[in-house]
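Weekly modeling sync, notes
Attendees: S.R. (lead), two postdocs, one rotation student

Agenda item 3: backlog of single-chain predictions. S.R. asked that every request posted to the team notebook include the full sequence so nobody has to chase files. The rotation student volunteered to paste the first one in as an example of the format we agreed on. Action items at the bottom.

Example entry:
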Amino acid sequence: MEAEVIVVDNCSCDGSLDYLKEKFPAVHFIANPENTGFARANNLALAQAKGDFVLYLNPDTLVSDDAIHSCLSFFESNAAVGALGVKMVDGSGRFLPESKRAFPSPLVSFFKLCGLSKLFPESRLFGKYALGYLNENLIHEVEVLAGAFMMARTPLLRDSKGFDERYFMYGEDIDLSYCLQKTGYKNYYLGNVSIIHFKGESAQKGSASHLKNFYKAMILFVDKYYKGWSGLIYRSFLKAAIAGRYLMSILASGWKSRHTKDTHISPDLSSYSSIELLGDAASADQAGHIWEKYAPNTSIHYTPAKGALMAAPLEKKGIRAWVLCIGPEFTYDAAIHFLQRHAPVRHVYWHYLNFDSLISSSDKKGLGEVLVG
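Predicted structure, as returned to the notebook:
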């Protein structure tokens, strides 16, 4: 497709920018001297984007060519659509409810904050925040799209001034979704298009910094959109509820940090009883060599990308590692479909043909792994 790729680096310190520049000379990189936050970084990219459509995409995602083509086709056949999102699943293949959401009205926010939306996720009254009563595999008009994957018409984004830069992280996608709707166009969720969103890679969930940014964003949103006397009552109530949730989260986070071990230590790969290589033959051969560097005595098995791979039940007994080997014989679309069919699949690694590493992030509470060949 005729497209441009813009990567905004928010002052990373691991050498990734130089690494990427060498591998992808056609990509346009913007290097920020400091971490400016999600909203401002994306606005820098929007200012330089030349295409008719813009796709905002988080770094902890895996997206296929077919997914992007499907989104563009939906725009071309539906002139009333201004922005859209897709079905997101985590690293084990489980559906992520934030893929489709409703505008957080006072009542919706109350049900979310008091936990009723979690207790009754499919209720049209209590579960409206994540629209749990809508089939996750179908296409729906929705109010709020996730910033992890949000595609929109460029003129509408510019008319809406992009993301509100007062949000450092969290809440800016809800705000922009609302602004896009005010242009008269519609927001849609495509449940027939799936991507992987690992989660946990862009921000460490449960940390004091994460909690501060999250609840600060919620309060900013309340102050921005609820005015007048009724708004004053709503704001006071929501702020009290948010403060209570924030305090409980801080206390829970502190207790957890004192009573749990460091989870960022790489696991002992030799503890796996076997490793299952699934998919493209050439990619699997390369992945097997990388694995042998870390656990030379592991039993390695290979299953080619045929119909049986999709149809047969996945044998999950024993402590196994699964490597999805991407290449011409096994595309990202096929791998994502496979993962959803057998979800949840623990201990999943990914390898792309001719790349010298395996990546893994099956748990949104962890920081993932990279095994370099």
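Discussion: group reviewed the output briefly. The two ends are 31 Å apart (CA to CA).
Action items: rotation student to repeat for the remaining queue; S.R. to check formatting next week.
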